[in-house]
Amino acid sequence: MKDIALISGSSHPELGERIAKYLGILATPAKLGKFSNQETNVEIQKSVRGKHVYILQTSCGKANDNLIELLIIIQACRFGSAKKISVVTPLLMYSIPFELKRQGVIQESCICSDGEIINHATLGYKSWEAKPGKLVTSLIEAAGADHLIAMDLHEPEYQGFFTVPVDVVYAEPVIIDYIKNNVPNYQNAIVVSPDAGGVKRAASICNKLDLNFALIHNNSSSTANRSSNTDNDSKREHISSTAQLISDTSINGSYLIGNVQNRPVIMIDDIGISGHTLVTASNLLQKNGCVNIYAIVIHGCFTENSIKLLENSPITKIACTNSIELSDSIINCKKIDIIDSSVILGETIRRTFNGESVSHMYSRDLYN
After folding, report:
1. Residues 356, 348: Cα–Cα separation, whole Å
2. What is the pTM of this model?
3. pLDDT tier for residue 349 given thresholds of 50, 70 and 90
4. What DSSP designation does 252 have?
5. SS3 track for 324-351
6. What range(s) does the Ribose-phosphate pyrophosphokinase N-terminal domain occupy (predicted)?
7. Nearest in space to 296 (alpha carbons), one of 204, 167, 162
8. pLDDT digits (tens, 9 = 90+) for 221-231
C-alpha cells in the first residue's frame, strides 16, 4: 500500500504490529519516551510528507500519558506535512461517563414561629463528576486529527462530540467467530445482555447466530427507594408487560427476563472493569438453571481484584479482545481467552484508505 503510514503509540505496540502485518506494511518507526523532567518526547524517524498517517493509541492503564503522547504525535505528523491524519483508538480516552452521585446526609434545623427548634435530616445535594469526553475530543481535533476510528464506543453519543468524520467499528465479527469455534453446542445457547445498556449489541449477535435472547434487568435503583412489597410487585408487573417471562429469582434487585433452564448462556458486554456486573449476572443465571456460562467482553480493563472475583464466579469461560494492552494477570489467567481485534481494525484502515465502505464489512464473513 503506497502513501500510507502507520504509527503505533506506546499504549499497545503489539496490536500495532498485528495491524501492520494484516496490511502488509512496515510500521513507521517512532522514538517515544520521556525527558528527564518526565515530559513526553516524540520523534517520528521517517518522513510522512504527503502520506495518509494512521496513529494507533488506545486507553486504559496510563490513560493520561497515552492521551498527551497521542496529541504530540498528531502535531508532529501535521508539522511533518502529512496529507491526512487518522487516529485509531480502539478504546477512546475518557469515553466512559460516571453517574450522578448524592453527597451523603445533611442535618438541618429550622425555628418555628413559636420558637421551637426542629431538627431533621435530608439527603445531600446532587453533583456531577467531571465528564471530560468533549474536552478530549476537542484536544484531538485541535492537535490536527482529520478522522477518527473507534471500536464499540461505550456511549455512542460521543461520536457527536467530534466535528471531523468518525468511523465507529465493532468487534462483532470476531466475537461471532469466537463463539462458533469455542462455545460447545452454541446453537442451543441463549445470548444474554447483563444490563439494559447492552441490549442492542447482544441482540445483533443473537440475530446473526439465530439464537434466543434474554435480559437481566437491574431494578436496584428503584427498589432502594421503595419500602413496601406492593410497590416492588407493581414494578415487576410493569416489566412483565413487555417480557414473555420474568424469573422469580432475584439478586441485588436484578431479575432475569427470559428462560435459560438447561441451556448454555453467552453473556455479551462492552467493557469490564470491576467485574461485579458479570459476577452478579452469572450468579443469577446459575440460580435460574443454566448449564454453562460464557462471558465475552470487548474491552477487558480488569483489575487484579476483578480477575480474582471472576475466577471464583460461576462463569465457565471469559473472553475479551486485545483492544487495550492486557496485563500479565489477564494473559496468564486460564479462565480468560483473548480475541484478536487487529483484523477488524486493519480491515477498517484498508477500507478508509481506499475509500471503500466500512459498514459493508459487517455483511460478509472476513474469515472464509
Report:
1. 9
2. 0.82
3. very high
4. T
5. CCCCHHHHHCCCEEEECCHHHHHHHHHH
6. 5-95
7. 204
8. 443 343 334 44
Say which residue the cell 491524519 belongs to: 85
How do residues 92-151 score in pLDDT, each as one tens digit? Answer: 988 876 554 555 555 555 666 666 666 655 555 555 566 788 899 999 999 999 999 999
| Spatial distance between the Cα atoms of 275 and 116, rounded to a whole number of angstroms | 51
How far apart (Å, rounded) are the C-alpha atoms in residues 239 and 150?
34
Residue holding cell 441490549?
A: 199
Distance in angstroms (rounded) separating the CA atoms of residues 39 and 190: 50
Give me the residue label for grid cell 414561629. 113
User: Among all chains, which residue has been given the C-alpha cell 440475530?
Assistant: 207
**C-alpha 120: how far from chain center:** 43
Confidence of residue 278 (pLDDT cuts 50, 70, 90): very high
Residue type, position 179, single letter: I
d(CA 184, CA 189): 9
180, 120 in Cβ contact below 8 A? no
CB 340 within 8 A of CB 300: no
* pLDDT tens digits along 309-340: 999 999 999 999 999 999 899 999 999 999 99
